[in-house]
Structure formats: C-alpha cells, structure tokens
Amino acid sequence: MPPIPELEVIRKAQILEAALKTISASGYANVTMDDICRAAGLSKGGLAHYYRSKNELFIAVFKEFFERIFQRSKQTMALYENPIDKLLSFDWLYDRNDPDVNVGYPVLFDCMSLAVREKEYRSLFHDWFENWVSLLKDAIDDGLKKGIFRNLDSESTARAISAVYQGIATRWYLDSASHPTEWAVESFKKAIKGLLLPNNI
Amino acid sequence: MPPIPELEVIRKAQILEAALKTISASGYANVTMDDICRAAGLSKGGLAHYYRSKNELFIAVFKEFFERIFQRSKQTMALYENPIDKLLSFDWLYDRNDPDVNVGYPVLFDCMSLAVREKEYRSLFHDWFENWVSLLKDAIDDGLKKGIFRNLDSESTARAISAVYQGIATRWYLDSASHPTEWAVESFKKAIKGLLLPNNI
Amino acid sequence: MPPIPELEVIRKAQILEAALKTISASGYANVTMDDICRAAGLSKGGLAHYYRSKNELFIAVFKEFFERIFQRSKQTMALYENPIDKLLSFDWLYDRNDPDVNVGYPVLFDCMSLAVREKEYRSLFHDWFENWVSLLKDAIDDGLKKGIFRNLDSESTARAISAVYQGIATRWYLDSASHPTEWAVESFKKAIKGLLLPNNI
Amino acid sequence: MPPIPELEVIRKAQILEAALKTISASGYANVTMDDICRAAGLSKGGLAHYYRSKNELFIAVFKEFFERIFQRSKQTMALYENPIDKLLSFDWLYDRNDPDVNVGYPVLFDCMSLAVREKEYRSLFHDWFENWVSLLKDAIDDGLKKGIFRNLDSESTARAISAVYQGIATRWYLDSASHPTEWAVESFKKAIKGLLLPNNI
DNA sequence: AATGAATGAGCCTTCATTCAT
DNA sequence: AATGAATGAAGGCTCATTCAT
Questions:
Q1: Which residue of C has its CA nearest to D200?
Q2: Which of A43-52, C42-51, C83-92 has the lowest mean pLDDT?
Q3: What whole-number distance in Å separates Cα of residue D10 and Cα of residue D8?
Q4: Is the full-model pTM beyond 0.90?
Q5: Residues of A with CB below 8 A from B170's CB?
Q6: How far apart (Å, rounded) are the C-alpha atoms in residues D188 and D192?
Q7: Which fold has domain C1-52?
C-alpha cells in the first residue's frame, strides 16, 4: 500500500487555511490549537503530525499568507501597462468584503506585534517588504525610462510608496468611520504622485 | 484620612510605568501579572488593590501612554513657528535611543493587534488619532492662512500626514537595516511636501 | 479620656447583625470578610479589632442567632396556656416574610453543613437542641400532669416533636411549591397529635 | 473508534466516586479540585476532560448520589409486602457503618446549603423529593386499598412521612449522643403511625 | 495516518490576615 | 479605635504537548 504522496500537501493546505481563518478571528494571543483543529476537521494528534508545534504552524501560516498576497498583487499589477496605473492597482486591498482583506489584516497586525520581539517573524516581514519593493521598483524604473517620473532613486521611492500605502491602509482598517475608503484612495494617490511626478517644490 | 493622600496617585504611576516597560519587553501575549508585579515591586494582591484585573490595567497603561506621547508631540510642535517645520518636528520619534520610542513602539504594535478585535482598544486608537489630527490640522490651517500651502482640505490632509508618518515609522522600526533613519526622514519630507505644497501635477 | 465601655457592645452587635445578613445572602462558602465589613460599615482592621478571625466571628454569629431564635420561641410559647397550643405556637416560623425566617433558614443550613465536620459547630447545635427539648418537655410534662396526653416519655417525645418540626420546615423552605404552608401546618399538627394523644394503635 | 469504548463511562464513574468521598470528607466549601484529582488518580487536565468545571462536576456528583440512594431505597421497599413494613423499611439509613450513610449524609447537608441559594441544586432536591413521594404514595395507596389506613390524602401524607423521616435522621446524625438510633427508629414509627392509622383524636 | 486521553506547568484572581499609621 | 494598604498562599481553569493505540 503506497502512501498517497499528495496527502501531505492536501493536509497541510487544509490546516494552513483553517489556521489562518482561526487566528484571524481570535487573534494570536487567544487562539488555541483546539480551535484550529476544530476548524481543520482534524484531531490534535493529526495536526501535530504535520506541524510539530504551535510556533512552527504559525510561521508556516504567515509565510503562506504573505506569499499569497504578494502573488495576487503581482498579478493585479500585470494587468496594467502605464507605470502610474500599476502603482495604483491595489484597489482591492481597500475592499472590506475581499476575503484576503477581512481575514488578512487582523493577521497582519498580529504578525507585526510578534515581529517586534521575534527574529523569525521579523524576517518574514523583511522578505515580504523586499518582494513588494522589487515589484514597485520595476514599475518605477519603467516610468523613469519612459520619462514620466522626475529624477529619483527608484528603490528608496519604492520603499516609501509601500510604507505610505501601509500607513494609510492601517488607518482605514482600524478606524474606518473617520478614514473612509475615498479618503484612503485619494490620500494614497496624492502622496505617491508627490513622490513620483515632477513638481516645483 | 489616609496618611499619605497622594499614595494612590504615586502607586498607580509606579504600576503604570512598570507595566508599560514589562509589556513592551515581553509583549501583550506573554506578559504575566507576576512579571508586572515584580517590576513594580509589589505583590499580586498589592497590585490588585489598584487595578482589579489584567484588562483594566492594560487599558490604563495604553491610555496613559497615548496621552503622554501626544503631550510630548504637542510640546515639540510648539517649539516651531513655520507650519512646515511644525509638521516635520517629530524627529525624536526616529530616535531608537529615546525611551518613548524603544519602549513605545512595541506597545503600539500590541495595541493595534488588540484593537482589531476589541472595541475598547479601538476606541483608544480613535481618540489618539483624533488628537493627532487636530494638532496637525491646526498647523495646516495656519499654513493655508499664510498662503504657503496649495488649496486643500486641512482635516483630510492632516489624516493623510499622520497615516504616512506611521507607515514610514513602522517600516523603520520593523526593518531598520533596509529602512534607515535617513530614508525615513527623507521619505516623510517628500511625501508630505507632495501633499501640501503647490505643484503642477 | 475614658473609653466608652458600651462601645464594644454596640460594635459587636452591629457586626453580628451585618454578618448574619451577609452570610444569609451569600452563604458561608462564598461570603467574604469584605462583604461583611461593607455591610457593617467598618474597615477590615476595625472588624478585626473585635473578632480576631473569620471563624471566631462565625461562631459568634451562629451562637447569637440560635440564642435569639430560642428566646423568641420561648416568649411565643409563654403566650399560651394549653399544652397543645404551646406546642403548636411556632406558626411564625412558617412565615416567609418574617425576618428571622428569611434570614435565618439559609444560615441554619450553612451551619448544619459546617456541623457535620466541625465539633465547634456541632456543639452549637447540641446546645440549641437541648434548649428546645427542655422547652418542649416542660409543656409535655404539663400535659401529662393534666392527663391530656397518653402515657409517654416526655423527653424523648420532645426530641421527636422538635425533629419532626424541623423536617417539615426544611421541605417547606427548600421546595415550597410542592410543600405549601398549609401542608406544613397540617402535617405538623397531625404528626405531633399522633405522638401525644391517646390512640388505639 | 476509541480503543476502549466504555472508557468515558468508566472514568466518569471513577471520578464521581472519588469526588463524592472527597466532598463528603472535606465539605463543599473546602474541597479543592486537586483533592478530587488526587482521590481519582487523575491529573487536573485529565479530570477537566470529563467535567469542565467544578460546578459541572458537583452537580453530576449530587445527581448520581441522589439517584443511587433512591434506587437502593426502592429495592429495599420491594422486599416487603405489608404497606406499613414498606414504610418502615429504611432501617439501613440509620446505620452509621453503611457507606451510603457515612459518606452520604455530609454531602446531603452540603447540598441543602447550596440549594438555598442556587436553583440548580434546589431542582435536584425537588426531583429527589418527588421520587420519594411517589414511592411512599404507592405504599400508602396500597394500604388504603387494603383498608389498613384511615382516610387520608396519600400524596400529602407521603410528603409528611418523608419530611418526618428526614427531620429525625438529621437529629440522629448531627447529635447522636442525645439522639440514639433506638430513639430515631421508635420516634419515626410512632410519628408515621399517628399519620396513618385510625385513631380517635 | 490519525485519534483523543492525559499530563502538568502556568496564569489570573480571590481573600483572610497583618500592620504601620 | 480605626483605617486600608499590602502580603502571599491557594484555587480553578487553560492549554501546548505527548503518547499509547
């Protein structure tokens, strides 16, 4: 009886998805392995078979999540030609009904809070940031080549755009009554135009 | 007729300070009441005398912290005359050796992660945001009156500046190797100038 | 400044009364010294001045309570001439609105539960029982002398009457929906008449 | 597919028995979960697996206890033919060496004390009372049919007998020096005969 | 591969008691 | 006489992890 080779892949995906949802709902500090088992439809021992410890599981969850978000953003960007349009293509990230948003944001905050004190999580963030930066940098370099943007350092600007986006999105998520989507979209547009386009400051 | 009338005030301050440091060091998810008691030089029961539960204490810690940071920022701003200078006056917030920074940032991330799921913490953030916004708005309105800035909505711009600052600071704090202080300062400058000054976009 | 000699008496009475009410409301197992202090309008230290420990206070409370109930019963009995009337004179003990009832019964159950395991409380009960028995015995002896009762051992019968009363009252108190007052009064009457009056069994 | 399908039943029985003994020995107010764990030969977590909280366990303990006592009484009664004999068949309840007595009585007093303030316990008593009453009522109805008893309301008399029994047993248990077994047995006999048999009162 | 019973350390909270004032 | 701050032991409960089956 040969083992089913894909079983591990299937189980891990099933666990990761259940864990992400559960962590998002309860928060890192409160979620229990039992919660996750229940959501994954597996027993404690079953889960332990694939992820040896809570920490190992959490790292895997966050890694997978970051990768997925990044891939999706990459694909969205690829739909546009114009560099500016590419940089403004993350509209879906301001859609509360989007599953990656309503599940993802809470997890992101948890992960930040963990990253402050634990290297492993910090490194997850670092990798994610670098992925974003290289994506944005490509678009900026293209804009530079086409002469649309003013003279600037593309990497450092890419970092700034990424950071600005996150700052605005955070406000939008934590206090949406005072920071509605229109405000977020407009503020982001203005800020990155200021960073990119020629002006007479 | 208590012997030392200020005792409660003293003790509460002592507890709050110890708690802030301890939470900052270990993180909300890991800190124990015992840790805090030890740091405060009080027994469990002694602490309970002033703060009845962990949650009550934490809310008090965060509230006090937000207030202090805000007051300090206010005072810093007041040192400058020029509206732009006022808006750029938060340099100390990029100083890793500043106690409010190395103790404060970790706590801030914890609080965000809590705010995602708990109203009480969310409301703490809301109040803090509003304080900042009104502070920044005053400076912007002054700039508008003086004709330094382009035509803009001062409140919405104040929100944007505050958000942009936080986004950049987050990167700087979580991944300072790739986001050094110079990058943070420069990026902030560029972004808010883009938001404020007349340009020909 | 001579101390006020009656102060101790006043304070102790005040504490005992507050303690009785508080114990009755929360139960021995749950009541705290703080509860009692609050009810007595005294501080912890103030109370400790008069009763050194929780146990000391509780014993005093129960002792006082038993004594008061007994005195009241004695006075009630004294109102009647006829021996049978005397023995049936405890009607007030079936009045839920009577303070000695609605405060007293709960405390009585607590005390029983304590008496099972602790000699001190058992001895309190013993004394109370003996008081009752001697009271009832006097009435029975009077009935015997008057030839109203059949030939019987007055002490042992006094114990039986007392026990029967308590059994019926317990049912009445714990499950009054199924054991209404009329049932209690009637059952008591029938049972003691069976114990006392001549019959042809 | 648990390896031992009856394991839960076995464990629960083991826990319930250990808990009953431990509660009986220390009293509801003093017994700790640790005591019970030790007696049951289980760890804290192990016990929690079967009974989620102290209260849940206690309710189960009392319920099981009441049921067992009732079943035993039922069986004892069934050994007799004559209605009066049936009603007098509870001799074992006056045997201090009987495990159901020396373990059971203390628990009964605890339960009463709890029942005063908590509905859940009160309802346990109510059910127990009703069981007893229906048992006694059957015997009384039989006696009525056979013409042995005087004209009476069988249910209300059943309640009275049950209450009288409990009152006498309480005295016997709490103060056996003054209320010996012979007194208890005799008093019970006299009282219920007075309640049942024709007399010329 | 999967189950879930069992462990036991750890946590928050409660509370009788003590004691300086 | 009276206060109430402070102690610290103890209790109930949670939960990641282990392991026999």
A1: C199
A2: C83-92
A3: 5
A4: yes
A5: 112, 163, 166-167, 170
A6: 6
A7: Arc Repressor Mutant, subunit A (1.10.10)
